[in-house]
Amino acid sequence: MGRTERDWPLAARYAELKTHFQPIFDRIAEGAPAREATRALPHEQIGWLKAAGFGALRVPVDQGGSGVTIPDLFRLLIDLAEADSNIAQSLRGHFAFVEDILARPEAVAKPWFARFVAGEIVGNGWSEVGDVKLGERKTQLVPQGTDFALEGVKYYSTGAIFAEWIDVLATRSDDGTAVIAAVDTRQPSVQRSDDWTGFGQRTTGSGTTTFTTAPVAAAHVFPFETRFRYQTAFYQTVLNAVLAGSAAAAVRDAAAFLKARKRVYSSGTAPVAAQDPQLLQVIGRAHAFAEAARATTLAGAEAVQTAYEAQFLNDEAAEKAANIQAELASARAQSAAADLSLRATTDIFNALSASATDAGLAIDRHWRNARTAANHNPLIFKERILGDHVVNGTEPPFLWQIGTPDLPKTER
Questions:
Q1: Regarding beta strands 209-216 and 147-154, do their DSSP bridges make them parallel or antiparallel, or are they unpaired?
Q2: What number does CATH give the domain 14-121?
Q3: Locate the Acyl-CoA dehydrogenase C-terminal domain: which residues (predicted)?
């Protein structure tokens, strides 16, 4: 790996960084309903985060970053998701790429750290749609002298439209191996489209990206087999943070709406809505759900931190065990956070009046965003895998893929 885990330590600094970033989160939250209503991409808001060093949270302090632990990163991501869950999810690919760079040799890592500190971020380019067989990719990395050129189309390119780089999963055309290519977006050969049509998480920039003989330096190509091993757990934990933040935002907005409500129902139990015990119970229960979603997400983040540290131990058995626990912990958190956030974002309406459904308020966005985030990495399969481990001790899979099955001709 090029160094030990203690060479560039990461410290617990959440309280300090919360103070630094909260004013930015508050500004982001103020405009979230309007962006939702007009489907306005948050270029400016992500620019604020870049300028404030949010993309360099995991970069070691002696390299110019904040040097936070994984749990503290996810505490801040939950806070950001409460302000705007779209922005938190749009940074999913960036923080995964940073995580991968943290384990690379110093000569590889330091130039990337400098880019992150300068405010550059990385988007995602992994998924392909259409008639792509399970486990295969049509996107090709073609040798061009000592460097390469990328050809292909990616969908669900979360965050790519805001990013200076895209983390692309491709196949080398010469030897058929899977590789990761970091592609500079500041060239005409990379075309990004905002054509994501989901009913939630509308402004994550999760559209189509087309690469037309896009140059890629050899130094920016990594064999997929060297990718950080806890990546699936890490990716899922970002989605869990989105769920927890959506629930917290729903409770925040519902509480403010109830507190400001002037009219009451004749069948209510108090002269003021904000003092009605039944309505307060609804908010209290939703708050408990949101806090529980946050807690289970952070418990999963602790397991991911252990997996990060295990890669520097030079102990294959310990690293494998830590990765198994990270995968299981993130799946447990996914199951709990999805259920809790969907209940919280739905139940709050029981404490509100019909006027709370006004589209201009966009309170429904919290449920739509949570429902959309919960549809990643199908929950039912994760729960089956958890059950199989609990009952039979079966090791969980570490890589999720999607595509058309390669069935026998008689079954096609």
A1: antiparallel
A2: 1.10.540.10
A3: 240-377
